[in-house]
Amino acid sequence: MSSPNTTSSTLASKRKTKKKQFVQQKVEVFRASDPVLSVLMWGVNHTINDLSQVPVPVMLLPDDFKASTKIKVNNHLFNKENLPGQFKFKEYCPQVFRNLRERFGIEDQDYQVSLARSPPIKNEDGVCVGLLMTSYDRTLVGKEISSEEVEEMHNILSEYHQHIVTCHGNTLLPQFLGMYRVTVENEDTYLLVMRNVFSHRLHIHRKYDLKGSLVSREASFKEKVKELPTFKDVDFRNNMQKVYVSEEEKEKILDKLGRDIEFLVRMRIMDYSLLLGIHDIERAEREEEEDEMESASEEEEEEGDENDLPPLLGSSSPEGISGYLNSFKAMGPGEFDPYLDVYAVQSVVGAPRREVYFLGLIDVLTQYDTKKKAAHAAKAVKHGAGSEISVHPDQYAKRFLEFISKIFAYSLTSSLYMGRGVKNTVR
Questions:
Q1: Which fold has domain 29-196?
Q2: Considering 48, 79, 353, 399, which has the largest number of Cβ atoms within 10 A of its Cβ?
Q3: Where is coiled-coil annotated (predicted)?
């Protein structure tokens, strides 16, 4: 059966496992003006619909970690003002990522709606090379990666999946949810979709990218004048920044971090960062009061206007990953749902500031290989042989863990952050 998307089109499909079956599109999909994003939205919508017709396997097999689905579209006329006439879409390891989404508590239909219901928002960060985007409901992040990183992802995917199974999804690692290749005008774009480390509703007021080194780890002047700069290790030290959480929360965080770093060392991965976002509750309360005053003023000028947005879809349709909150009472400043904001932790009672912290590991696809060794040699020449440059993944991990253990406000006993998992990692 042909879907509305393929009317007046010649669509060829290649699948390693079975012949392509087309299913009726379940939700209305809005297209992005960017052709790559348009094809991504089309492809995610199509492949999730298609995958819903495939039984969930009892267990994943080695071939599932190598599988892919490919769709090639020629002479495409539907929605031609936004979709290119010819394009290709490839999904990597669909059964594996479906299993990972389930383990991370994300329904396929919610994932589909979050990515394909409205155009993603491009992040004009200036830090990331290539495309970086956030889903319209701010629950997902899509990052452009290189073909080498696609290969590295394949190299670690089986071990990563096993790590997620072992820790029951309780991790600071990125939550990998899908990997795709979009081809427009014979140019390939590789995209990796992850859960957003930051909140879909709590605004981030300060953020840091921490690697545990002070060599060339200060935000540039150009970065610092941005509305929301990405500060680094030297800035963290100079700002005398601290993370104020309870002893129990510190122990949980460092325990998770120890297990995750042990996995990264085993995979010979380095150059990762801890992304730290800080939500200032008192500042958010002031901003909310200002917004309410502005809204009241606008209502006086334009009586009868509806300020509330309608539901994303009909009541019987999925509303995306954050959509179910629409039926709940509104949350106040500083409140979050741990089901959605899985990287969030509340500041301890009595802290100097009421804050919510978001902590997650990012950039975990750099394996220690020949290219990395060459880069290390170049840095050693520039900064000197005795400078703070790690040579191996285990040394990088040791330095990283030592730095992160000191970001908390109160000193910890060594038993908290040099436990069994971390000792095995950094010995």
A1: Phosphatidylinositol Phosphate Kinase II Beta (3.30.800)
A2: 48
A3: none
Dump the DSSP string for 25-72: --S--PPPSSHHHHHHHHHHHHHHHHHTTSPPPSS--GGGGT-EEEEE
The one-letter amino acid code at 94 reads: P
pLDDT of amino acid 405: 93
What is the pLDDT at residue 331? 74
pLDDT digits (tens, 9 = 90+) for 193-214: 999 999 988 999 999 999 998 8
Which of 143, 211, 250, 398 is catalytic? The answer is: 143
By DSSP bridging, strand 273-280 and strand 355-362 are: antiparallel
From CA 65, how far away is CA 154, in angstroms rounded? 7
List the catalytic residue out of 34, 108, 255, 271: 271
pLDDT of residue 293: 75
Instruction: Compute the C-alpha angle 186/188/192, nearest 5°.
Output: 160
Q: Name the one residue in this structure whose structure tokens are 């899908």.
A: 178
Query: Residue-wise over 199-214: b if at least 16 C-beta within 10 A, else e?
Result: bbbbebbbbbbbbbbe
Instruction: Tell me if residue 271 is catalytic.
Output: yes
Chain position carrying tokens 């004009």 = 124
Question: What single letter denotes the amino acid at residue 366?
Answer: T
pLDDT at res. 22: 40
Q: For residues 19 and 13, what is the distance between their CA atoms, to the nearest angstrom?
A: 8
Distance CA 140, CA 112 (A): 11
Residue written as token pair 């840091």? 208
* 187 vs 144: CA distance, rounded Å: 13
Q: Has 110 been annotated as catalytic? A: no
- What is the Cα–Cα distance from 84 to 78, expressed in whole angstroms? 9
Q: CATH 3.10.50.40: does it fit domain 199-286+331-426?
A: no
Q: Find the farthest-apart pair of alpha carbons in the chain and give their distance in angstroms, rounded.
A: 70
CA distance 418 to 258: 8
Closest C-alpha to 138, from 280, 341, 284, 313: 341
Q: What residues does each domain of the chain span?
A: 29-196, 199-286+331-426
Q: What is the pLDDT of residue 407?
A: 94
Q: How high is the pLDDT of residue 24?
A: 44
User: Which residues in the chain show pLDDT less than 50?
Assistant: 1-27, 126-128, 303-317, 390, 411-427
- DSSP category for residue 408: B
